[in-house]
Amino acid sequence: MRLVTFEKLVDLQKSPDKIRNICILAHVDHGKTTLADSLVASNGIISQRLAGKLRYMDSRKDEQERGITMKSSSIALYHHRDPDDFLVNLIDSPGHVDFSTEVTTAVRLCDGAVVVVDVVEGVCAQTIVALRHAWEEDIKPILVLNKLDRIILELKFTPLDAYIHLTQILERVNAVMAELLVTDIGKGFNIPSRKSRSRGTSTSTSISEDTIITEHNIKDWSTGLDDVDDSQLYFAPEHGNVVFACALDGWGFRISDFAKIFSKKLGFNETVLNATLWGNYYINTKLKRIMKGAQEKAKKPLFVQLVLENIWAMYEAVAVRKDKEMVLKIVNNLNLQIHPRELKPTDPKLVLYAIMIKWLPLSTALLDTICEKLPSPLELTDKKVERLMFSHARKFAALPKRSQELKEFFLNCNSSDDAPVIIFVSKMVAVESKSLPENRPKILSYEEIAARREQAKQRLAEKNAKQLEERSESNGDTSPNYCLTSENKDDNDNNVVNETISEDADVFIAFARVYSGTVKKGCKLYILGPRYDPVDGGTKFKDAEVDPKHTLKDLPLGQHVTVSEIKSLYQLMGRELEMLQEVPAGNICGIGGLDDHILKTATISSTLSCPSFTDLNLISVPILRVAIEPVRTSDMARLVNGMKLLNQADPCVQTLVQESGEHVLVTAGEVHLQRCIDDLRERFAKVEVTVSKPIVPFRETIIDPPKMDMVNELVENHPSSGGHDAKKYSQEHESELIVQATSNKKCTIKLRAKPLPNRVTELLENSINLITVLKESENTKIDILSESILKDIVDLKENLRGEFQKEGWDEETVNQIWSFGPKRCGPNLLINKVPGYNCRGVWPRTTTSENSNQYSATLDAFYSNFVNGFQLATLAGPLCEEPMSGVAFIVEDWLMDSEATDDSMNHPFGPFSGQLMSCVRDACRKSFQTQAQRLKVAMYSCSIQVNGEVLGKLYAVLGKRCGRILHGDLQEGSANFEVTALLPVIESFDFANEVRQQTSGLALPQLVFCGWEVLEIDPFWQPTTEEEYLHFGEKADTENRARKYMNAVRKRKGLRVEEKTVEFAEKQRTLTRNK
Ligand SMILES: Nc1nc2c(ncn2[C@@H]2O[C@H](COP(=O)(O)OP(=O)(O)OP(=O)(O)O)[C@@H](O)[C@H]2O)c(=O)[nH]1
Ligand SMILES: [Mg+2]
Fold first, then answer.
1. Ligand 2 mean position to 29 CA, how many Å?
2. Cystine design at 255: which of 237, 575, 948, 956 (Cβ 3.0–4.6 Å)?
3. Contact yes or no for 1033/1009 (Cβ under 8 A)
4. What is the pLDDT of residues 494-546, one digit of tens each?
């Protein structure tokens, strides 16, 4: 039974200082959902007995079956912390890397985060990602060190070993925080001085050995800090931002909880205990004083003596020795009110749970920490508001004045009636319409039931009277009776059909947070798409001009705003929804009825001056593509509709239709793919589908001619050539310079291809966001761009210049960059070295003056055609029509006849612009082919924790799949190895399953896309030298991996493949004859 009424929660929504919007973040399986269970149980939503087992926030069937969370879901909880009541909106997020986009959608709506770390596994890949995410979104974290029971029962550590282990984990978490801080130094954040940095395990205090600790001393010690805020950056038990917990057994505590207990028992000052319970302090029993230097004097630290030993004793008595008398003694000692019935069960876990939840209740410790340490919506910082609302590319000051004024409402979390409504929707959640509160069967009061009964009786009496009348008229004919029943039946049937249709249908609820104003049911608001811009939006539309009938589907091009009525508002309560009439600023809520207006994210506002929120900071890139087809072709329409719904419901999915007509689904990984297919089959499309083999993208590149051949011999005869292909081409083309003319022969271009230095390609790949901003702001003036963007541009230019210089390229190359490609933001460059042509280039300019030079002006007229040719070439390379990467095309000359564009000349070959485009594209492709061509494969970085016993098997699986092990270190204090490896995406299918089978389920790999790697094999390679013949045989039947990949892509795309299908035709014939 719920301990708090819903009305109470609604009441609390009106006091933003009492609200905490927080999410739980961690690596997969570190216990987030179990932790959430404890908090949910504290509100009576689930019973205490089921807490930890039910995993209430995992509401999907597949989440329960697989035991992993797949979507983030929110619940509103009540907490009382003297003297105040608090409302905690808690979002549980998934830890599996495939669902990291769900984490992004959660983090965006929160002000604080609970970062959970499993104390046995320690800091894992996703823990670092979670901490970084919290840092980047500027939300404050607290730390929960979970699964302490595993240290006791599994690792069987002594309390002292456990303490050392915990300090090490804390060090590692703080090291991650320090790293984040250091990386931000360059970005101009306020970095506190090093001196002031105090770590959780800090022993560098100014207290001399043997100093007696008093309250006065403690104060001195903390005032020594230069900057108080800095200490909040790190996790330190003495600062109250670390909770030690065991979510499964329902207990958890902070240092302060024990300080309270022992200050009474031992008569120490609570503040002193609070500051010394963690760290290098011990009790001198003779002097009855707390002293420093436990480690040096081989004394037990206070934490071990007062905290861990007590917990160890409890586990020892209950779970290990099962000593009932001892248990009773401890319970009495601790003065706990426990019913003897609760100590009876034979399962020690149940007894443990019953005792621990009374002694150290996890929910109280955690909710207290949340309410005390994490900020309320009122504490939004100026910086965060600007970052949320105004894209990085622009200066805040460049926005219209009315937009700038909104910031104040934001900062004050103003929910008054005259405050503009500003809401951000971070994702659309699909729910079954039958689970909506308005469709739930209503619980009737006694009077209502009685009234209904009366009405029914009356209706029946009327019907009977009518029947009697008719029967007497028709002289005993029974047909009316029949008719009536059949009519009734029909009616019921219809109802059933209608009901099943409406019950089955999914509706979308917008997962949102109100930042300003109060949103009320029935009010009309603007829905601003992610690309909405208040600069032109505010002037383009007057309020009346936004057509209220428009939805996403029929929105005119370039318009990103619609109007909609807010039909329903919900409080998200885990698996359930509760109806709300209004939601004031500072709250997380669900909004219904916006299916037709929002695709994935949106900003909702009552004013058109509101800019749309910055895009979500996505961590994972969807990389795994499959083509989907219905089993029966007649189901195509349902599938298309289903894919549309899936696209809306999942923030990390992309659905597209390829030119070949295939319907393609792009997902983050195998687990994610499986969930999407299940959703399509069972929920959105409800049709059987066939799923193609995964389509993995490749990149095409060129490299400097290799110095070694395939048997690691120096290439002597052809120092400048790569493989077979390069040799062939360099013989045909004496120079690498490609000269290409347009079809009308009036324009000639000369260009050459050159591999970009690796660091340059990397820089370009990493700066894709910045380059996209550059692309978008090509026509805007430099003074509109924000300082941070301008600084980033200058940095990028400087870095590129440095890298080019290191590799011996011309220093001026950076200024000669004409375009990036493909899509004008990729990692290939078009470089202008045309004598006398001063082209516009990619960098923002202070002036927008036209080219004064006549020649340049002529060329400028065809500037965009030239660039488009380059874009086409880089979008689909000659190997297998995959995009290029890391190639520079240097244009050495561009000659145009004055009458080149003359209409009469154009005619036979089509418009000149088209001719120029194809000419550039062909020239780029040809020049690419003169070089040593290579494929680039997508790589996963794979981190696995595995027991030493099955390490060999894991290495075997990795080896078979062409994986490369980067390191495999033994984890301190356990028999587990932490293996990091690189694995080609194309070889990764079913990898997780195979690893699980080979290691008897002991290893769970986490695969994250980590970039592209050149495959050092020439796809056209054939043995040429004697050694190569010897090694590979004449036919080189050892499979050429590069060729295999290339041919597979070519086959899939319907391109020509050079392959022998029948090799030994004669032998095969002989065999059949002999039969
Ligand atoms: N021994 C022990 N096991 C725990 C504890 N907390 C959670 N577990 C177990 O750890 C496993 C994973 O727990 P979950 O709560 O599902 O983990 P999660 O972090 O929500 O996992 P994802 O959402 O998939 O990332 C379950 O089998 C839990 O029973 C704990 O304190 N001690
Ligand atoms: Mg979970």
1. 7
2. 237
3. no
4. 443 344 444 467 889 999 999 999 999 989 999 988 888 777 655 566 555 67
